[in-house]
Amino acid sequence: MIPVSLSEEERRSLEELERELASTDPDLASELESGRPRGAKARTILGSLIVLAGFAMVIAGIITQLVVLGVVGFLLASTGAYWLLAGSSLRRRIGRRIGRRDGEPAP
């Protein structure tokens, strides 16, 4: 992405829009400032709990020697890990790195 400099009028206009947004919808303004999407905290907690439940099922499958229980636990843990990383900045960075062309510098 090529950086573009803004004129003074454009900067003032953007600052005015930012102030209006902060006054009309403070939740959205704080979300945009933080860079975390809504529900990211819930997704993190839910993903962590699903991963732990999956690991518990894998261990229970090993102890009881039930292969089906271990496989279901592994699939559950994998699903939880996906949920946990679905909105993370790590996933966005990896996606950007994969999507860039050869020879382009890293963002």
Overview of the structural elements:
It contains five helices and no strands. The mean pLDDT is 78. Helix 1 (8-24) crosses helix 2 (26-34) and helix 3 runs antiparallel to helix 4. It has helices at residues 8-24, 26-34, 40-64, 67-85, 89-99. The longest helix has 25 residues, at 40-64. It is 76% helix and 0% strand. The radius of gyration is 22 Å and the shape is rod-shaped. It has 107 residues and is mostly helical.
Summarize the structure.
The chain is an all-alpha fold. The protein contains 5 helices and no strands.
In sequence order, what are the helices and strands, one letter per element?
HHHHH
How many helical stretches?
Answer: 5
Please state the overall shape, judged from the principal axes of the Cα atoms. Answer: rod-shaped
Poorly predicted ranges (pLDDT <50, ≥5 residues)? none
Radius of gyration: 22 Å
**Percent in helix:** over 70%
- SS class: mainly alpha
Beta content: under 5%
Mean pLDDT across all amino acids: 78
Strand runs, count:
0
Terminal-residue CA separation: 9 Å
User: Which assembly state applies to the chains in this document?
Assistant: single chain
Largest sheet data: none
